[in-house]
Structures are given as structure tokens and as C-alpha cells.
Amino acid sequence: MLLVEYEVIKPFNNNVVLAKNLGTEKILIKKGIGFSAKAGDRIPAHTDFERVFVIENPETSVKFNQLITRIDHRLVGICEEVLHLICSAIGEKLDEEMHIRLTDHIAFTVFRLQKNDKIDNPFMIEIETLYSKEMEIARQAIELLEKALDLYIPEEEAGFIALH
User: What is the CATH number of the domain that holds 25?
Assistant: First the structure.
């Protein structure tokens, strides 16, 4: 079997890059993979990635590429780390659209918080009651986001993430 290297298209952060392999764009997640990476760099195909995500649906791929051009690339990387955390916690893959929906949601939340907008969630009690496992995972996601962004994210946001 021929192993073809990955070509970095765009590094998102130290742990996430967008790369191409045999004409297919893939999101590669591995600790340190994006550190000092730049477009055109090569990554050996035999690399032991934590996760490789491929958007198979061409329409979804177009939407994802449109999204990543309008938000900070580091935020895309952080969102992919959050999605990786969620996949690991639930033990299954997420659908392709989730990468778009959650990344877009988090980007808008960060935008609102940076403008000092208040985040209210009047359904916190119901969400906590009906989706306790999802809330636990969402709280972990909030911790990861807060640490990476150096930004306080209110508990109410965990409720919105849990519903995704």
C-alpha cells in the first residue's frame, strides 16, 4: 500500500491542522502537530494521529470552508479540540454538520462575550435535568475554551452546547 504524505493547507493551532492527502481535505488532530506548521509543510502518512476527520459531503465541505475563512483559525482549532473531546466522551463519531454548527455557535458566542453581551439561558434547570451527561461534557468543553481563549464563559453557555 502506498502511503502518501499529508500537505498542510492551514494550521489552526498547535494541535490541529487542515491538510490534504490524495486530493481529500482532512482535519488532523495530534498534540503539537500544528506547532510552527505552515501551508505546504509535509506530514508523514504513518503519523499516529489522535483523530482524523474528513468531510465527505461536498456541500458540507463548501460550508465548512466558508466558515473557516470568516473566523479566527485558532478558534477553529479549539472548536475541533472540543469536538474531539465530545467524540471521546460519547464514544462515537459526530455527523459532519456538527463541525459546522458547533464551530459557528462557539464563534458567535465568543464574539458576543468579547462585546460584553450577557448570555442567558432560561432553560438551564430543564437542560440539566434532561441532559445531565451532555451537560457534564459541555462543562468540560467550556473549561477547554476558557483556558485556550483566556475568556470567562458563563455556565449558561454549557446548556446551549449540551443541546447541540
Answer: 2.30.24.10
